[in-house]
């Protein structure tokens, strides 16, 4: 699996001129690696992640999954079968339990999931540190760190290769942050996922395998 951008650009029209947020971004991501993208507030990190996740469309250039343009795959297909997204604010369904949140995700993918969805969901939650008792609670009866774990389990439920996370620890204290980072490391190392995390945190970046810096529209690898 490779996820690649080719001369990717994004801009906002400002009167007659274009204000570029991303300019000719060329980058390649693989399975089994934990990447971070650093950048100051407003540098375009969320924009880039949204384009990689097909929540937004590049103005110029392409996103390629295994050399195929994601527009040809179809944004919806691509999102459903290839991408798991994690957000700072968790974005769980508040009137469902943790396990129900995971089950909902399983119903939308075309990827193969063993037939006993419920068992898979409880196992995934358990793997991520959510006991069965907690899995049966409404998500708003869980702590922030626990809710983020549920969001990770949900992202994994569809058996996708690519996990995209936008400031996933922004609402968590340092200890919870480290626990979530440890999960990302395991997903890359043991489960061969491609994990791409957008963050302000140098500390998280220092624990990832490849660090990119977004500055003035350019994405530069941090050596
Ligand atoms: N609708 C819009 N019109 C014009 N500019 C916009 C619009 N939406 C976002 N922007 C600008 O695009 C730039 C990139 O935003 P983006 O959210 O990608 O940055 P970010 O690096 O994720 O920031 P943060 O770390 O603060 O979340 C910002 O300068 C923002 O002001």
UniProtKB/TrEMBL annotation:
PROSITE patterns: ABC_TRANSPORTER_1, ABC_TRANSPORTER_2. Pfam families: ABC_tran (PF00005). Gene3D superfamilies: P-loop containing nucleotide triphosphate hydrolases (3.40.50.300). One of its GO terms (cellular component) is plasma membrane. Residues 3-223 form the ABC transporter domain. GO terms for molecular function: ATP binding; ATP hydrolysis activity. Keywords: ATP-binding, Nucleotide-binding, Transport. It catalyses: ATP + H2O = ADP + phosphate + H(+). Belongs to the ABC transporter superfamily. Part of the ABC transporter FtsEX involved in cellular division. Has ATPase activity. Essential for cell division and viability. This is Putative ABC transport system ATP-binding protein. It comes from Pilibacter termitis.
């Amino acid at each position: 699996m490779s996820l690649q951008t080719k001369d990717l650009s994004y801009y906002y029209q400002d009167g007659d001129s274009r204000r570029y947020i991303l300019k000719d971004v060329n980058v390649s991501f693989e399975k089994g690696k934990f990447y971070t993208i650093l950048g100051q507030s407003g540098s375009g990190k969320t924009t880039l992640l949204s384009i990689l996740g097909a929540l937004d469309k590049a103005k110029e250039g392409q996103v390629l999954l295994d050399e195929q343009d994601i527009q040809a795959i179809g944004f919806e297909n691509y999102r459903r079968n290839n991408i798991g997204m994690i957000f700072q604010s968790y974005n769980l369904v508040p009137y469902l339990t943790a396990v129900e949140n995971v089950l909902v995700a399983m119903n939308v993918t075309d990827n193969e999931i063993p037939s006993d969805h419920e068992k898979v969901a409880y196992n995934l939650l358990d793997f991520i540190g959510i006991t069965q008792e907690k899995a049966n609670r409404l998500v708003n009866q869980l702590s922030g760190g626990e809710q983020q774990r549920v969001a990770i389990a949900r992202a994994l439920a569809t058996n996708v290769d690519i996990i995209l996370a936008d400031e996933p620890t922004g609402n968590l204290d340092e200890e919870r942050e480290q626990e979530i980072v440890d999960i990302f490391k395991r997903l890359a190392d043991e489960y061969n996922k491609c994990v791409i995390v957008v963050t302000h945190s140098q500390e998280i970046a220092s624990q990832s395998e490849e660090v990119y810096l977004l500055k003035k529209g350019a994405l530069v690898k941090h050596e």
